[in-house]
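[agent] plan:
  1. take the single chain provided in the ticket
  2. run structure prediction with default settings
  3. attach structure tokens to the ticket
  4. add a short note for the reviewer (M.T.)
[agent] executing step 1
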Amino acid sequence: MSDKYVLQSLVDLLGADGAKAGLRASKRLTLNELVKIAELCNMKVKSKVTRNQLIDLLILQFDKRIDKDIEELKMMNSADLAEYLDRTGCSKEEVIELLNKYEFPYKKSDTRTALIRHAADQISNLGLYERIASNKRS
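[agent] step 2 finished; step 3 output follows
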């Protein structure tokens, strides 16, 4: 059984917080082994990453709740998109990762709910602007 499958199973069975707690309590899973797992997942790991930071990054990788791609998200209006994001149960970190991926500015101090509303507004507006631009070109 591959390490990736084991981590995915841990997250599925215990949830993100339970999997993090289990990995942190593990005396067998070293930083080097975690780095190898991250590399198998095509994750870039900084040389000075701590064990706990890497555990957080790995769990985030396996605890993806947003299952629509950006094109599907851009087609939704802001209210529907915010409802979808909230309904998925995605973590604050996953919303931040989404905002970072598309270079949307945000405040790290915002709550999960505020970040969801902000992400929904930004993504929905981007989709609207793209639709307007494509209609003008036609």
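[agent] step 4 note for reviewer: The chain has a mean pLDDT of 92.
[agent] ticket updated
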